[in-house]
Amino acid sequence: MAENTTIATNFVQNAIEEDQKNGKYTEGIHTRFPPEPNGYLHIGHAKSICLNFGLAEYNHGLCNLRFDDTNPTKEDTEYVDSIQEDIRWLGFSWQNRMYYASDYFDKLYDYAVELIKKGLAYVDDLTADQIKEYRGTLTEPGKESPYRNRSVEENLDLFARMKAGEFGDGEKVLRAKIDMASPNMVMRDTVIYRIAHAHHHRTGDKWCIYPMYDFAHPLSDAIEGITHSVCTLEFEEHRPFYDWLLENLGFDVNTRPRQIEFARLNLTNTVTSKRKLRQLVEEGHVRGWDDPRMPTISGLRRRGFTPASLRKFCEEIGVAKGNSLVDVAMLESCVRADLNENADRIMAVLRPLKVVITNYPEDKEEWLLGDNNPMHGGHRFIPFSREIYIEQEDFMEDAPKKFFRLKPGGEVRLKHAYIIKCEEVIKDEQGNVVELRCTADLDSKTGGATAGRKVKGTIHWVAAKTAVPAEVRLYDYLLETDENGNLPEDFIGALNKNSLEIIDNALVEPSVKLQAAGKHYQFLRTGYFVIDPDTTPDKLVFNRVVGLKDTWAKEKKKG
Ligand code: ATP
Ligand code: MG
């Protein structure tokens, strides 16, 4: 695991160190990542994963994976599996500490009973709408429920009968008894148990009452011995309730979890809400949760992002207390830097134009040497023969003066090969250029007499006989934003109709032939690509990860 330099300086780490200086958490630091298994993880979760596992690692502590599965109707084992796969792929390990909030349903029930016995919880018969109405507003205090002063015995009896299934969904709830006039709305007798006759993906039909998130979450943390519950800002106003709960259930202040909030990651051109991502999948706007345009971890993986690049991104954005919007170009810059260093270079032609080298023997084939990567070295063979393909846009008939690629009568170097000169342009009946006839300076390849001869342009190519056909998928942002990077409320209206372009007749050099999904390349002069899982031994499919141009790094230098 790479050293995480931002952990050392972030405010959460500072708080941990302060706690330890004050003699708290002497047994060691213990964090957790607590996803609800109701969707696939996204880039925002990656930030939380890197932070929680990173803090544990930095402090020689532990980090649990815990599924917060208190909402039986929305959860699924498909999500449980994908979440584990994504965390492992990011490079983190919970070792043998994978838990579920549902592991604690018995204990949580007992805690609720304990609160009732202490006169700190009551069964309420108000409907959901009434509870809302009685809750008051930010400027007005709430009203006490007429059921608030039921006796402990009556509450115990009713709660047991809720559990036994005597009542229908929504007929009764269990509420904490705190303060209906509290300025903090969460403290106005928060609901802690509800009735839901629903099948749970792990506990089956054992329960028909389920703990609310605000009850299950802090207690699950406490049960697991979590020292620092790191979560996002929206839970700041829930913290007094969590502290109230733990205090009244007898958890020692020196060892019970301390909650620390940080800002969610928001990215330009991107939605990071499982609900919205699910909508994109369910309404068919994308091909699935792992569509390469999705900001899910599985989508980013398929798109060709590397674990190292996502970790680096999470390091670079840092951890702060205030919400902000991060430019998605920064994420792209991170993967570009990783692939620039690590991806092998090859030649691929996306939109082929045939070139015949008329002075090159028809039956000749030679193997030229190309370097794979400027940083890590290595070489491969590239076949050359009389017919090749170049990129359509590397030829221009009426070229401006500054066009240094191929033009009638002009010369260009073929990368790793010869200098060629365009002698004749062949067109079809509609006037489209369909073929170029060129001559090569046969002494101009490496080692030849004119190898050092300079021409202005160098272009990539593939040999016709040996080129491998490929489908190439080019992506643009799934959503279009205004000039400030913000999405409209109705984000479906912001869908970019041109977010996917499929090129089905690209050609790549044969060295890639036996590679399978997940292998990265830089297509020289074109961008970074990865082999897609749709690839079969008969058909190569590539995704473009990012283009070559790094606007983010440029801006950073300027700024
Ligand atoms: P969503 O709004 O996408 O459903 P969530 O917060 O409900 O997200 P959880 O499964 O509860 O999803 O999230 C697990 C953990 O990941 C939580 O601790 C949550 O705070 C954190 N998390 C979720 N989204 C982000 C984000 N955009 N940035 C940072 N952390 C996040
Ligand atoms: Mg949530």
Which terms would index this structure?
alpha/beta, Rossmann fold, Glutamyl-tRNA Synthetase, domain 2, Ribosomal Protein L25, Chain P, 3 domains, seven-stranded mixed sheet, elongated, binds adenosine-5'-triphosphate, binds magnesium ion
Topology of this protein?
Layout: H1 11-21, E1 30-33, H2 43-58, E2 62-67, H3 77-90, E3 98-100, H4 105-117, E4 121-124, H5 128-134, H6 152-164, E5 173-176, E6 191-195, E7 209-211, H7 213-223, E8 228-232, H8 239-248, E9 258-262, E10 265-267, H9 274-282, H10 297-303, H11 307-317, E11 324-326, H12 328-342, E12 344-346, E13 348-349, E14 352-357, E15 365-371, E16 379-385, E17 387-391, E18 411-414, E19 419-427, E20 433-441, E21 458-459, E22 461-463, E23 468-475, E24 500-508, E25 520-523, E26 527-531, E27 540-546, H13 551-558
Parallel strand pairs: 1-2, 2-3, 8-9, 10-11, 12-25, 14-20, 18-21, 23-27
Antiparallel strand pairs: 4-5, 5-6, 6-7, 13-24, 14-17, 15-16, 17-22, 18-19, 19-20, 23-24, 25-26, 26-27
The protein binds adenosine-5'-triphosphate and magnesium ion.
Residues 34-36, 44-45, 47-48, 231-232, 264-265, 272-274 line the site of adenosine-5'-triphosphate (ATP).
